[in-house]
# Entry
Amino acid sequence: MCARPATAHGFGPTYDIPIPLWLYLYGAAAAVVLAFVPLALSTRKTPVADDAYEYPRFDLFGIRWLRNVFGSRLLLGGLRALSVFLFLVVVISGLVGLQSGFNIAPTFVWITWWVGFGFFTALVGNLWPLVNPWGVLFDWAEGLARRLGLRAGLGLGETYPRALGIWPAVGFYLVFVWFENVFSGSYVPRNIAFFALGYSLITLYAMSYFGKETWLRHGEVFSVFFGLLGRFAPTEVRVKTPNVCLDCEACGPGRCVNCYACFRRVDPDERELNLRPFAVGLRLPERAVPGVAAFVILVLAGVTFDGLLETPLWLEVVRVTPVDQTLGVMLLPMMFFVIYLGFVRLSLVFGGGEGASFGRFAAAYAFSLVPIAIAYQMAHYYTYLLIQGQMIFSLISDPLGWGWNLFGTAGFDPRYGVVGASFVWYSQVALIVVGHVIAVYLAHSISLRLLRDPKRAFRSQLPMLVLMVLYTITSLWILAQPIVK
Amino acid sequence: MEVTRAAIVVLVVVLVLGGLFFLLRPDTPDGGPRARSFDVSIEDGKMSPEEISVNRGDTVMLRIDADELTEIHVHGYDVEQQVEPGKTAEIGFEADLTGRFEIEDHETEEELGVLQVRPR
# Structure
């Protein structure tokens, strides 16, 4: 009876002990040493631009029964309906459920979905384009409208201003990070419901105003976010026939990876569901959309900010400077962004960057930082998912806190001590160091593609190594800090 | 040539990181589990000392004084004890779970302090 859903600030109490000083130093040393490995092991060949699309992959749709299972309308339609159902459960629990204590909304939104689904997206694949409740609702509404005789569907047909890029998503993400980390009522079920409803109105209206796919690609912040994580994932969807992508604004012939608009449009026989190595999706040469570097840096700063809030240093900053949480949530990404741009500039000085613009380099290198953000997020939250995440088993039996016991699991008590503290320490450091090595590898791979000269690529990577080591040591440092409130 | 280079790089990295690990890793705390007892007082919803740190396997005994009627709950271990003012209450348990656990006032669910159980 004493187990309780996540309450108060952050994700509820942490059970992790800060990593000991020696292990922090060891992790930092390992980050420095290992940073040189991808460079030392790289081949000296000059790559061809479209080589980035040619990595080992295995088409799961090539196996008949897998294609039947993953392509079945029953499964896909069921998942979409389930997603809308869960969305409604969250909103209803938030509005009418018990406001303190037992309520499914905070745990489901913050732990199961935000942390759990995020991990799934990075480690398995991106299901969000399939189950995005706003996308599903929009499709249903449009289907209904067509049936009622509205030929044009629900689109208002306005043109999206290209120069805006994904800046709307950047703005929404900033608000989201603020809501998650700064807003003191982020765990109050009713606030979650209000935010979800408000965001639904904006999203549904914008999908109708600019067109569904256009808004999902530029403004729907969770599509952009999970899309970014999905680039790391070991699965992708592709379209076999190049000519379907001729008039697609997001991809191009032979470059149709994870372009869900094309994927949905083509005949089922033309679809591929591929297994691929981790992280290769982050080094694809794609047209840079305005705002993409800012978005990636904001994601990185956002996960860092969450941990930083619990450190004594941050308390000191708040005490002696006029900076408060809200200002901090805006200043930290800006600081990260300025540092990032500075290092990209340095990298151009070292490696030479004539022939390509600064903006292009800044956009391309940003993707290499994604593994650092994923690794930090996992190191920081996987124990929450393992322990607090267990609360969902009791909450599904009594989502509103009205004393129900739908599945007989309402009395389920979470098991603590699923993982011991020393395992947590080692795994946290290992995760962060592995993320760092992948990031270094990606940055080098991106520089080879952009500079087309192994020697210059090597030189251009020296400042980038310093940047990666800086980020990684910051992540480790936060995990080594005593926890304060 | 490429393979030799790769082998050398991997070997050097393994040696350096392996060596560093054994160099930096501290010795395990000497002696086995011990009996540890703490005098704890609770005033104005704060525990003093604020943090109780033990090693895994220790037998912990908390002797608690409080300025008002408090229902103490040690998270994770799920031990509870009512403390009346003027009377010393005792909570005893074996610290077999590692981690950082809140000690809270069960009524208000406010955190009073923290129990930290470090691995051996």
